[in-house]
Automatic annotation (TrEMBL):
Record-annotated Cupin type-1 domain positions: 61-211
Main location group: secreted
Protein known as: Germin-like protein
UniProt keyword NAD, yes or no: no
Organism: Sorghum bicolor (Sorghum)
SMART domains: Cupin_1
Length: 217
């Protein structure tokens, strides 16, 4: 009897651990298309009635179109997540197309709710991610057309087009809504701003330097 109790407890523990590490909740029906008219707010989105679901709820058009990279970073992300495809709700996946101008950068950022796997479609990219404290080890690689690289969930990562031609990559993520936190924007462009005293001490620079950086955001 004691052994059976132990096995049951171990099974329940393993199930709870699996649920805790999953990026998105598991699906309990065929699909759960977002009900955009609902005022209910949950961890995710409420489902609309299955009889009202149509093929367009699972469809997105235009990922073949290059994004406009005429910005300071020289890159643009075209997301295909639950905001674009209502049928992705509860399915735990999403996509993004990233376009890079020559010497364009997808700046250091994190996805708090998803692991990313990146495939280079055109051009070459220098990519990498940094592990958490205290090691902060950089794992970096030069990718060419057809190469694939993985960025673990929540870790800071980047992609840089070091070439003289445009580059394109396709990213898949393990969440319907992985989120994105661009490090520089979050630190120097918060609203209201983080105190100069805090940032000057954190980055070991003077307040004037912080002011100049914040002015860019």
């Amino acid at each position: 009897m004691a052994s059976h109790t132990f096995l049951l407890a171990a099974a329940l523990l393993s199930l709870s651990c699996f649920h805790a590490i999953a990026s998105d909740p598991s699906l309990l029906q065929d699909f759960c298309v977002v009900d955009k008219m609902s005022t209910v707010r949950v961890n995710g989105f409420p489902c609309k009635d299955a009889k009202d679901v149509v093929a367009e709820d699972f469809f997105f058009q235009g990922l073949h179109i290059a994004g406009n990279t005429t910005n300071k970073q020289g890159s643009i992300v075209t997301p295909v997540n639950v905001a674009q495809i209502a049928g992705l709700n509860t399915l735990g996946i999403s996509l993004a197309r990233i376009d890079y101008a020559p010497y364009g950068l997808n700046p250091p950022h994190t996805h708090p709710r998803g692991t990313e796997i990146l495939t280079v479609l055109e051009g070459s990219l220098y990519v990498g991610f940094v592990t958490s404290n205290p090691d902060n080890k950089l794992f970096a690689k030069v990718l060419n057309k057809g190469d694939v690289f993985v960025f673990p969930e929540g870790l800071i990562h980047f992609q840089f087009n070091y070439g003289t031609k445009s580059a394109v990559a396709l990213a898949a993520l393990s969440s319907q809504n992985p989120g994105v936190i661009t490090v520089a924007n979050a630190v120097f462009g918060s609203k209201p701003s983080i105190s100069d005293d805090v940032l000057a001490k954190a980055f070991q620079v003077d307040k004037q330097t912080i002011d100049r950086i914040q002015a860019q955001f």
